[in-house]
Amino acid sequence: MKRAFDPFLPALGVIGLIALWYFAVWKQIVDPVLLPSPVDTFQAMYKGMAGGRLGFDFLKTVERTILSTVIAAAIAIPLGIFLGASERLYRSVEFVIDFFRSTPASAMFPLFLVLFGVGNETKISVAAFGAALVILFNVAYGVMNARKTRLLAAKVMGASRLQVLTGVVLLESMPQTFIGLRNGVSLALVIVVVAEMFIGSTDGLGHRVFEAQQLFNMSDMYAAIFAAGALGYGLNLLFLLVERYFVHWSGK
Amino acid sequence: MADGAVLLRTGREDAPSGASSASAAAPHVTVRGLTKRFGTASIYDRFDLDIPRGKLVSVFGPNGCGKSTLINIIAGLILPDAGEILFDGKPLRAIKFGYVFQNYREALFPWLRSVDNIEYPLKLMKLPKAERRARVEKLVAHLGVKIDLKRYPYEMSGGQQQLISIMRALVVEPEILFLDEPFSALDYEMTLFMREQLQRIFMETGTTTVLVSHDLEEAVYLADRILLLSRGPAQIADFVHFDAPRPRADETLSEKGFIATKAHCLEVFQREVRKG
Asked: Contact, A210 vs A34, CB < 8 A?
């Protein structure tokens, strides 16, 4: 009896949240101007996504996030393999990587503004910068932590250094690389949305949230926030599914 | 069982036994002047050893005496500081050999199906696909293995995974097979099963086999010769014969010859441990 209900457990939190929301609106615990009803919000979301501004901004943010992640991966994966292949080499640049990885990417906006102007390039390059460091660090660790026995096994069977690298090390680092990609895309989304709020933006989800707030259009603002949440969740899920397909042995 | 020890032939020289031909009596592997230090610890100092052809040799000795180091050096995984190791007078790179690691989980490639794991060394030898498949099928039929090789290693039990490892080592038709404590990560039931598998494989192929073991019962049960090492720098404490007929079974464990041999090995082992 209980077991049959288990797949629906995650829905409980959602129902609970919406019920709480309704309750707050009904009892007017929060000022109705600040908290529109769930129905108003989802209507605004539906209208916005179906051919409205929100859908356009949503796609803009998707485009920037994907583009910056792709650029980050294209740079960081080869570089991470190169650095990880020699532990001494990685140790020599580790501090620099960790330092900039720890620096809030938002603190880099002014610098990138000077470098790339106020256009699209700035948003994408800041996000790519942040994501690249996360991916780089994970790929390098994936390569360095390749199981020594596995490398020895390939070597003892007569594999050359290149064959060990392409046939063993690269595959060994894949699970960690995917962790880097998942963290990287999440970070890229955060940076893109923040960048869309502040740097002379005219579109994107960040811009939509900011503009709706400025116009005091609360249902539009909540709709944009939920759209951003759905995007973040969806991207993470997408990468998990891709990972499960390509790195089927991960964690086993 | 003091009189039991009389039954044993011991000593370094492999006395040629009557009818055997000259080539069978000649050692397969000769180790001469092997020297290896790890930091300040001298593991081997001018160590000599002859490994007889077509026999299963168990290596047993106190902890840290360099059992695994010995086969790792012979198999080329560790470079010696000095010394010469020849296989029928040839260096390692000129022969085919197989090596089985203790940690099968880390030695197999989880991204490859079991059959592709077994084919991996053949792929390195650049054999075409059809021939690789044929070689694996031949091996499977030869050993009578009944495992679905289409599965990934992580979908299998520990024993099955180690069997895949052993098959991967055998598929190149090696002249010599090294096993480094191959069953010590398995539970007891699986260990017993795998001992039988290894004995069958050895009887089927007759490949010269060197087995490092930390279990004296296993070392004696499986072996034709038991190499007992002393503490570092390791010397041959004894190189014991055990000639019980194969296939050996559970009854072997309670036979007089087995008990006497095991008792003798234990005595030598204890003597070496106390020396340290």
From this structure: no
Contacts of A222 (CB under 8 A, 6+ apart): A36, A41, A44, A45
Residue A29 in domain: no
- List own/partner pairs for B34-40 with CB under 8 A and 24 or more apart: B34/B73, B34/B80, B34/B82, B34/B83, B34/B85, B35/B80, B35/B81, B35/B82, B35/B83, B36/B66, B36/B69, B36/B73, B36/B78, B36/B80, B36/B81, B36/B83, B37/B81
Q: Do A156 and B154 touch (CB under 8 A)?
A: no
Min Cα separation A66/chain B (Å): 27
For the sheet with B176-180, list strands across it: B97-100, B176-180, B208-212, B56-60, B225-229, B236-241
pLDDT tens per residue across span A166-207: 999 999 999 999 999 999 999 999 999 999 998 778 999 999
* Partner residue opposite A158 with nearest CB, options B109, B124, B168: B124
User: How many domains does chain A fold into?
Assistant: 1
Backbone angles phi, psi at A177, to 5 degrees: -60, -40
In chain A the first and final C-alpha atoms are separated, in Å, by 31
pLDDT 10s digits, B200-216: 989 988 999 999 999 99
DSSP string, A59-99: HHHHHHHHHHHHHHHHHHHHHHHHHHHSHHHHHHHHHHHHH
In chain A, which residue's Cα lies nearest the Cα of B102? A149
Q: Determine contact: B3 vs chain A, CB below 8 A.
A: no
Instruction: Give the structural domain span for A201.
Output: 56-246
Report the run of H or E that residue A47 belongs to, with start and end.
helix A38-49
Residue A45 lies in a domain: no
Is a pLDDT exceeding 60 seen at residue B6?
no
Where does the pLDDT of residue B248 fall: very low under 50, low under 70, confident under 90, or very high at 90 and above? very high
Report the residue of B106, B123, B170, B210 to disrupt the A interface, i.e. the one with the largest count of A CBs within 10 Å: B106
Task: Report pLDDT digits (tens) over B119-164.
Answer: 999 999 999 999 999 999 999 988 778 889 999 999 999 889 999 9
In B, residues 100-139, which contact A (CB 8 Å cutoff)? 101, 103, 106-111, 120-121, 124-125
Chain B contact for A245 (CB, 8 A cutoff): no
For residue A160, what is the domain's CATH number? Answer: 1.10.3720.10
- In this structure, are residues A68 and A131 in contact, taking their beta carbons and an 8 Å threshold? yes
Angle of the A9-26 helix axis to the A38-49 helix axis, nearest 10: 110
What pairing do the DSSP bridges indicate for beta strands B82-87 and B56-60?
A: unpaired
Q: Is residue A108 part of a domain?
A: yes
In order of A95, A129, A244, the CA distances from A99 in angstroms are 6, 13, 31
Residue A101, chain B, CB below 8 Å: the answer is no
- Is residue A163 situated within a structural domain? yes
User: Measured between CB atoms, does B159 come within 8 Å of chain A?
Assistant: no
Query: Which residue on chain B is closest to A174 by alpha carbon?
Result: B111
